[in-house]
């Protein structure tokens, strides 16, 4: 059920730097036709720093780790036809032979089976703001809690209840650190998040990961502030959440709905920030993976 590409397998056997990438961002996170560039750019950023990309998806009845250019294209062109594959959904996609675009949580399942220690994404899921009405908590969170993977991201998506998510990650024993900052980035914006400890540089991040994995089965979150963030996102987020409620959008559809709403209403500003931060986080994950494997 698990197929690891030859390039990824060889790199893992040699203890080399391998970084997993999700594909929900490719299939569902951007307007039709635009996700493919994000996926390609993240892979290119990894290669540029000497890391091997391990993009994950469910294809042809297998959980795949490491995709060819054509396979990445298949996921991208499936778009919303691809199922959103979180930890719950992977088996269904395999058994049905459906295309599954992995979330962060789904990617972490692949990492656990393949033995990959690093991944990159835009922003992780978390506790949705409406959690007092419905306990909508992203499956990314328990997956990070049970997988020894460092997740490079730009924090928790600010569409969520960020302080509640930080509390939950503490409960689960998952370190959340800022990359060169003590202010947890808020995905679209570098500022306004809760205070967190900082790591200073890639060597520091690699050492923290190594020490944490001697002590714990859990992952860690390294949050890098977006460059040229969009600090006015909050006003639009409230409108997006109202619209989701008015249209009765629930479950897995919530996050793609909110992202699409913001991309449209911000005149493409959130799109631009999201594209850039996803790529920059890939660079960061690649650099930390390289530092980690050198020290290994
Ligand atoms: N980061 C982005 N765009 C995205 C996501 C992350 O820049 O679309 C996706 C990831 O796949 C993450 C998912 O796992 O959003 C969270 O969805 P949910 O809240 O339904 O768990
Ligand atoms: Mn959810």
Explain the layout of strands and helices.
Layout: E1 2-4, H1 6-13, E2 18-21, H2 24-27, H3 35-48, E3 52-59, E4 62-65, H4 69-78, E5 83-85, H5 90-96, E6 100-102, H6 104-114, E7 118-120, H7 140-145, E8 150-153, H8 162-171, E9 176-179, E10 198-199, H9 202-215, E11 220-223, H10 233-246, H11 254-265, H12 269-295
Parallel strand pairs: 1-4, 2-3, 2-7, 5-6, 7-8, 8-11, 9-10, 9-11
Antiparallel strand pairs: 3-4, 3-6
Helix pairs in contact: 3-4, 3-12, 9-12, 10-11
Bound molecules: pseudouridine-5'-monophosphate (PSU) and manganese (II) ion (MN).
Pseudouridine-5'-monophosphate is lined by residues 22, 24-25, 28-29, 103-105, 121-123, 125, 138-140, 252, 255, 259, 274, 278.
